[in-house]
Design brief:
heterodimer, A: mainly alpha, 16 helices, 74% helix, globular, B: mainly alpha, two-stranded antiparallel sheet, 71% helix
Chain lengths: 290, 347
């Protein structure tokens, strides 16, 4: 008991900000000032998206909303085929998420639970390709899809997802490896095949990993720019980020319109963040190399 | 397009396959053939070695990745070596030119500029980002009331995507109407031209990159929570104050995470593209990031051979920088090995 009391006393002693009021105030001051700097451009984006063009010029750095010009948002969705782009973005986000989660969890499960000959060597290859920058294969991959006649379609942005991605294979392997081995034994006794065991026993238990990976993938695919910039030429297949980039170069001076469009593109990410804040934090955490 | 692929597509179209699905047909056919072969092989193996179900399952389960690895990585890389030795505009057949693309790249002043801009960006922004993210994580690790709100606020900017972020910051840093120069003007400072000024464009992108340190910060925050409290207790018993606890406990414990983040940060920063694209390379090529120049050569000028050579140069640079980082950090990173752990238990 005394040892525990001692530990508790030491722990209570550790946080320096409890030592005196001065440090606490200083800490808060730094936090508030820093947060202000960080969130300010964000608020400015929202404030500007609700202003008139004249209002943008006169209010400068202010984020105080003088006017609420919701019409900017109406213009954002009507002045270019916004819904078409949204559909393309949704297609190139949701389908790849399903593909990546399935292929990576399957491979991750195999690497974690079916330790056969050469599995170790193969896993080393997976890890090595993690370091390979996609830009190196960017040009030849384009030629491949060109050979398949898939340039200027959404397929090059969707199909590769079904063939696994080393990083997420690694994440799933780590997750499955931490599950108790008795699970597999129980399933074997039940006469389950390996695939059934994966689908009915392991995958449901890996739900936290699936959710976290899906959210990370959503942010990645939704905001993907290089892929669409390479493969998409015609207006019909543009995704939202590509459309916004084109929009910027055409309507570069219509700030409120640009900001409204930016807010709309960011909105799904914000929504997911506020709904699944905890899973995001978990997800980012277990990608952090621990 | 490959002639066989064209033939299959025509066939599919004449059979009434919807136009949007026609491009998919040849690829799907290839996959079906591939998996028919794999399935047959698995079936045969199963009959021959009934007890090898584990091995068969393993290879089946990793087969999507293996196929993807062959199709999207090994194959393209091999063909990239060849293409980098040719002159090819995608329309006329490739013409073998030997090492001409590489010698041209070495003499191309824009390659030099692209390397300079990209390396400067990586070498300045990554240490700054790492330091800032770590510092913020240390601050946010205190459990004073309201910390959750602060964490959310610091993470929020990371949700603004590459393009939206760049569009936003083009306006934040607009010399006439922008947020930044208006704030500076209130302090009586005449702000610079930011993105419009060749000598300011790169520092502006670096400054902008600091806005999204939230992602790394969350990782550090989780790492800080995992530092065993008994280490702090032991340090405190030995008379170490907060500063020495930081140097001798926090930093060594966090060093593997910092290394991992710095490494992925370096690789990521060498791949920077969107900012260069939206700024059109910046004034006087001041934002001519390497991947943007590569993209420009491949997909705007259709110089596939030259772009492939550039890709290999980028690969060499990334490999070299990774190796240097790993070697340079070997002495500074503390790994919690079994040996260390048992030593601690005994000691």
């Amino acid at each position: 008991m005394t040892a525990m009391a001692e530990t508790l006393a030491l722990r209570a002693d550790r946080p320096f900000w409890r030592r005196n009021l001065g440090t606490t105030i200083a800490l808060y001051l730094v936090l508030v000032l820093g947060s202000l700097v960080f969130v300010y451009p964000f608020l400015w984006m929202i404030a500007t998206s609700l202003r008139s063009l004249a209002g943008v010029g006169s209010s400068g750095a202010s984020v105080v909303p003088h006017e609420f010009l919701w019409d900017n948002y109406r213009r954002a969705v009507t002045s270019f085929p916004f819904w078409r782009y949204t559909l393309n973005s949704v297609l190139t986000t949701l389908i790849p998420i399903v593909g990546t989660v399935f292929s990576c969890s399957l491979a991750g499960f195999a690497f974690a639970r079916l330790r056969v000959r050469f599995a170790g060597v193969l896993f080393a290859v997976v890890l090595a390709t993690m370091l390979l920058p996609g830009e190196v294969t960017m040009v030849p991959q384009f030629m491949l899809f060109n050979n398949f006649g898939m340039v200027d379609t959404l397929y090059p942005l969707i199909l590769p997802a079904f063939f696994g991605s080393p990083f997420y294979i690694f994440l799933f392997r780590q997750f499955f490896a931490r599950m108790p081995a008795e699970l597999a034994d129980a399933a074997v006794v039940d006469g389950c095949g390996w695939f059934k065991m994966f689908l009915l026993v392991y995958l449901p238990l890996a739900r936290p990993a699936v959710v976290a990976v899906s959210i990370l993938l959503f942010m990645g695919y939704w905001n993907n720019f290089l892929g669409p910039a390479i493969y998409i030429n015609s207006d019909h297949w543009k995704t939202l980020p590509l459309a916004l980039a084109g929009f910027q170069s055409v309507n570069g001076t219509d700030t409120p319109l640009l900001m409204a469009t930016s807010v709309l593109i960011t909105a799904p990410c914000l929504l997911i963040f506020f709904v699944a804040q905890k899973q995001i934090t978990n997800g980012i955490t277990f990608t952090g190399g621990k | 397009m490959n002639p066989t692929v064209g033939w299959i597509r025509d066939l599919a179209a004449s059979w009434g396959v919807p136009a949007a699905l026609v491009p998919l047909v040849p690829f799907l056919l290839l996959l079906i053939v591939l998996y028919a072969v794999i399935g047959l092989a698995a079936y045969g193996a199963r009959r021959r070695w009934p007890r090898a179900d584990r091995t068969i399952a393993f290879w089946l389960f990793v087969s999507p990745w293996l196929i993807g690895f062959a199709l999207f990585t090994v194959g393209p890389m091999a063909s990239s070596v060849y293409v980098s030795l040719t002159s090819w505009d995608l329309i006329t057949p490739p013409k073998f030119v030997g090492l001409a693309n590489y010698t041209e790249a070495l003499q191309d002043p824009r390659v030099g500029q692209a390397l300079k801009v990209t390396l400067l960006y990586a070498l300045i922004s990554v240490p700054l980002q790492t330091a800032l993210a770590f510092l913020v994580a240390l601050l946010l690790n205190s459990d004073v009331p309201g910390m959750r709100v602060f964490r959310t606020v610091w993470y929020l900017p990371s949700l603004v995507s590459g393009v939206a972020q760049m569009v936003l910051f083009l306006w934040v840093f607009n010399p006439q109407y922008g947020l930044m120069n208006d704030v500076l003007a209130r302090f009586g400072i005449q702000g610079p031209g930011w993105f419009n000024d060749a000598s300011w464009a790169l520092p502006t992108v670096i400054l902008m990159s600091l806005w999204t340190v939230g992602g790394a910060m969350v990782i550090y925050l989780a790492g800080l929570k995992d530092v065993p409290p008994n280490l702090y207790e032991a340090a405190a018993l030995d008379g170490a104050g907060p500063v020495r606890q930081f140097w001798h406990v926090t930093l060594p414990q966090m060093s593997p995470i910092i290394l991992f983040n710095a490494l992925t940060g370096i690789i990521g920063s060498l791949q920077i593209f969107t900012q260069g694209f939206i700024a059109n390379g910046g004034p006087k090529d001041s934002l001519l990031f390497f991947v943007y120049y590569l993209y420009d050569n491949a997909f705007q000028n259709f110089r596939m051979g030259y772009a492939s050579a550039l890709a290999w140069i980028l690969f060499a640079v990334i490999l070299a920088l990774t190796a240097v980082t790993l070697r340079g950090s070997a002495f500074a990173v503390y790994y919690e090995t079994e040996l260390n752990r048992s030593k601690r238990r005994r000691g």
